[in-house]
TrEMBL record:
Compositional bias ranges of the Pro residues kind: 166-175
GO CC field: mitochondrion
The name this protein goes by in its record: TRAFD1/XAF1 zinc finger domain-containing protein
Pfam families with a match to the protein in the record: TRAFD1-XIAF1_ZnF
Bilayer-spanning residue ranges: 184-202
Molecular function GO labels: zinc ion binding
Keyword check for Transport: no
Keywords: Membrane, Metal-binding, Transmembrane, Transmembrane helix, Zinc, Zinc-finger
Bias-annotated ranges (Polar residues): 147-157
Disordered: annotated span: 147-176
Superkingdom: Eukaryota
Amino acid sequence: MAADAGFDPSAAALAATSTCAHCQREIPSSNIDLHSAHCARNLQKCEHCGEMVARKLMDEHYNESHAPVSCTLCKEIIAHEIWDLHKSEQCPQRIVACEYCEFELPAVELHEHQDVCGNRTEFCQTCKKYIRLREWIGHELQCHANTNGSAQSSSARTIPEREVRPPPPVRPPRPIHGAQHKRLLFTIAVTGIAVMIGSILFQREESF
């Protein structure tokens, strides 16, 4: 009884909907007759995309969304659905840049141009050789890797040699034995006497 007392027939009527036979939209049942008359008179379903479009705008909708497009570069007629793909990737007359010299030219001429351009050479400052442009990226990676590896290997070879190589041994002076000592004193004495005699003779010659 309490539930029946709270029931509002007017609210239930507002919540009820009906499907429009023309546009297939759910419309409040209270407005379905008015909507159906207006919809059939003013709206038209697009046969290409199914969108409901105002009858007076149907031609504009078709031209903007579905009409084939004439490419101004290659003069081909392109379906609207693939127009963006044609412009960016498929048109043979679209302008592209050479990956070696960045010169811009039609895509149809790119392959022949890059065959010639990629065979040009540039001087590698690292290995002091002339390298083809088409091989430049791979060469640069390999050349730098080899250079860094050689530098590390050279460093690893030279440092241990400095650490391992011992200093040259210092030989102690050989001791002078008795006989050698006597010969040394005799040599010194003879040398001293010879110097004295030479000095006396030189002084006599000067006095004369």
